[in-house]
Structures are given as structure tokens and as C-alpha cells.
Amino acid sequence: MKSPSWTESYRAQHFDHLPWHFTQRATDAEKADQQRQQRALAKAAAVEVGENCFLAPSASISGQPGAALRLGNNGFVAAHAYITDDVRLGDHCTVNPFATLRGKIHGGDGVRIGAYACLMGFNHGYADTTKPIWQQPHTRKGIVLGDDIWIGAHVSIMDGVKVGSHTILAAGAVVTKDVPDYAIVGGNPARIIRMRKRTYAPRSLEAKLARFGQKAGGELDALLSGYQAKTKDAGLIYLNQKGEKKRVRPWCDATEIAAMFGRVAPGFTKAEWITRLREFQDRVTGVVPEHIPADGQFNDAAPADPDDTRFYNTMAVSYALETLGSTLAHPVAVASAIAVPRLRKKLERLPWKDRAWHAGDWVDCYSSSVLSDALYFDRRPPLKELFAWLDKKCDPMTGMWGLWSAESRWQHPVNGFYRLTRGTYAQYGMPVPHPEKAIDTILAHMTDRVFFNGKTDDACHVLDVVHPLWLCRKQTAHRRDEIEAWVAKRLPKVMAHWQTKRGFDFVVARHDASLQGTEMWLSIVYLMADLLGSAAALGYKPRGVHRVESPGRGLVR
Fold this sequence. Notes:
Elements: H1 6-17, H2 22-25, H3 28-45, E1 48-49, E2 54-55, E3 60-62, E4 70-71, E5 76-77, E6 82-84, E7 87-89, E8 94-95, E9 100-103, E10 105-107, E11 111-113, E12 118-121, E13 123-124, E14 138-139, E15 143-145, E16 149-151, E17 156-157, E18 162-163, E19 168-169, E20 174-175, E21 183-186, E22 191-195, H4 203-218, H5 220-225, E23 228-231, E24 235-238, H6 249-260, H7 270-279, H8 310-323, H9 333-336, H10 340-349, H11 356-376, H12 383-393, H13 411-428, H14 435-446, H15 459-472, H16 480-496, H17 515-531
């Protein structure tokens, strides 16, 4: 028998590894040979293959009648793939080199399985500890795949998983739970990274969102000008409400509200805004005090106390400058000075049991201050140690860091969860430790009519549940329908409380609007709309303290 030439051997292995070339480039003789191979596999392993398919000769395919490979039209199985038992795939499905499909696996059309992927539609029994595992019977729930799925290289899918249509399983993902339609998942265990498409909100709601966004944007300059005041010593200033004391936060709220719509707040140029905001910071400690001395000179001996409430102003000014494309003028020295031993002691001493909001507030302010230092001043804060402590201390039964109490019920733990995760997991792009349990606790808190009755709902209480749900939904579709129903019922009511050229009251149903209330409720409306997949209809996006991006992603090493 004549040995194949180098050219013939090359062509054979070429199609083995690049089977998508076979239909267009194979000769009639090569196509005839492929048909003979498919007939042989049909006889030997009960394989059923549609039209225009290619099965690599080096692939190992085994089966028997009723439990064998069934492949629709225009598909292929590439080199060294390993396929056993009841594997059924529709049209335009592909199995790339070295992939493994074993057990019961039923898929639709357009399923693309990457190299070295492993789909295990069965499992070893292990319940009987008196016998070796290899002697115990297998269990088989099977894997179900929808249509139009991209399964990346080295993905593992476990028995019993259902993968929805139009999904992407990122390379290396270990999929242990069901994946909803249009989800992109990744990691070990795999979690939702984001949704490709959402169709939960009705078109009527999207139209309301669009009208609301247009109205708010159209009134923006008049609204912000209404919170200005003129003083003898400082000239033009911003106040949260008329008659209130001069504070730092209204300047930040005005900046962030304008930035949501891609604008600069009236009264100052962009350069003037940057200069004014930078002037609030003490150059020695790096913190932003609540009140600015009349002479403009800070006391260089200002207390370097990480518990100082002025940390919140530091965070707010940093975010406001960020929206203007600028940064704090100086590092936050009091935050950078906290080394690992002191950080751990501080975290342990925070009032997690009875005042979880206060504990979360400190973590939020600290992590935001060191983020600025890391991004702009080449500091190396102990972020790895911070997240290691937080991951370890998160309660796996509730997903919270605080405890339920008869006095505040779930209010303090949930509020503390928001402040803590906003400053850490959200802006550093890290996964929340127990997202499903956190959602369960948050939904339980949302049934408490003391805090949620539609009449006395304030921006803090609503933001404290909406932002955590939005954050956890990045990782899981757990109780999605309940979340969306709650949001869809309240979102139109929130928008209806907008006051023409004044914005929102902090307590949504009152009529005493403020800059703080306006910034918070505009952010809440966006997050609610995003939970329904319709935030794009608003035409604006939160900036600053409630931004939805993660600028610290990649800093935790």
C-alpha cells in the first residue's frame, strides 16, 4: 500500500484542525472519503450527521442506538475531540479541537464549543462513604444548551446546568449554575459579568424614561442656578437648600448632576470649578474639612484621624474632580498612613454588630481615599489585605457584614452593605462574596414598611437597596423576577415626583427639593432602569460618587 505523500498528510491534518475550511477547499475525493467515514461511524457508534458536516478522523466518537452523537446540518467536530453517549446538537454547531462532551448533552442551533472545553453531562456517585467512589453508580441530570451560544476555550460545564440562548461563556469559566438568556458569564465559579440584552421593561416605560431624561436635561441649567447664592466673603456659592449653612457637598452634587448630562454646572468655567474644588483640600492631611477657614489657611496640625467624618467630603470632592477630568491636588495622607496592622485593628474595632452603617461608612471613605492615592499619586495601599479581610468576614448565610437587631432590623446591615460595597467591590471591580444570600437579605428588608411604604421613602433607604441589587445582579440572576417587579412598580412613581426646575426632595413624596436629593434620586432612577435593562433610554448616566464604572479594576493584586 502506497504511503500518503507529505501534501496529502498535510491536507488531512489541516482539515482536522481547521474543519471550517473543508466544505470550500476539500477535493471531491476528500469529500467522498469523509462520507465513507461518517457511514462507518453510523454503523459502529450509531452517529447521525446532517448535510455539509465534517468529523475529524482523529476525534474519538462513541455511542450506541439511543445514546449517540446527533449533529445537525453545517456542523463539525475537530481534531482529538472526545464525544461519548447522548450528545445532540442542532444546525451550525461546532466542536473545536480537544473538546470533551460526555453524558447527556442536548443543545439547539448555533452552539459553538471552544478548544479544550469540557461538558460533563453526568457525575460520579459519592454518597456512600463505605465504598470507593469508583464503585458507586453514576448520576445523570444532563446539560441543556439553548441556541446561539459561544462556549469559550477551556470552559467547564457541570451536570445539571441549563445554559440559555444567546449567551457567552468566557474562556476558562466553570459553569455550575444555570445561565439566563443573553448573559455573559466568567470565572470560577462562573458569575454573570453583564447582560448582552435585556427586554424586561415594556416599551411604555422606556418612553417614560426617555421623556424624563429629556425633561431633566432641558431644565438642568435653571435647576442648578436655583441653588446658587451670593455672599460677601466667598462670592458665588452653591447651597443644598436656601438658608442652609455653607457646606462642601453641594458643590460636589452640582458638579456631578451637570456631569451626568455631559455638562459643567453654571457659574464657573471648567477650569474655575477645578480650582475651587481643589482649594477645599488641606495640603498636609489631604482631607477636606467641612468648613473652610475665613482666611483660607488650614491648620497644619489638623487631626490625622481616620475616623474623622471629614473623610466623606474628601471622597466627594475627589469624585467631583474626576467628572471634570482632574484629581485632588494632594494625596490623602491620613489614609495612606494606615499600614496593614493598623488597618486590621481598625476593621476589627468597627461597630459591625449594632451600627453596621457606620462601619460601612468608614470602609467606603477609606477605600475611596486610597483609590485616589493609588491612581494619581503612585501610592500602594494594602488593598489585597483589605479585600481578604472583607471576604473572610462576610456572613455566608446573609451576605452581610452586620447583624440583624430588634431595633433596626435589617436597616443597618443593608445600609452598611451599600456603603461598604460601593467603595470597595463596586469601584475596584471585585466580585461580592455571597451575592445570592445578599439578595435574599435585601429583599427581606424591602418588605419592611417602616422603611418602604411609598410615602416616606427617602433617597438613602432606596439607594441602600437599589445599588446593592444592581451590583449583585452583575454576578447572578438570582430572584430576578422579584427584583424587576419591585423596581417596575416604583420607578414610574419616583419619576412622577420630579419638581420642575427644582429636582427631587430627599424624601421623594415631599416638595422641598434639594441638590442632595436631586443627585441621589437621579442616580437611583438610572440604577432602577438599568436593572430593567432600559437605562439607555434616559440619555444620562451617574457620574462621580454613584458612577457605574470601576476605575480601580486591576489594582487589587
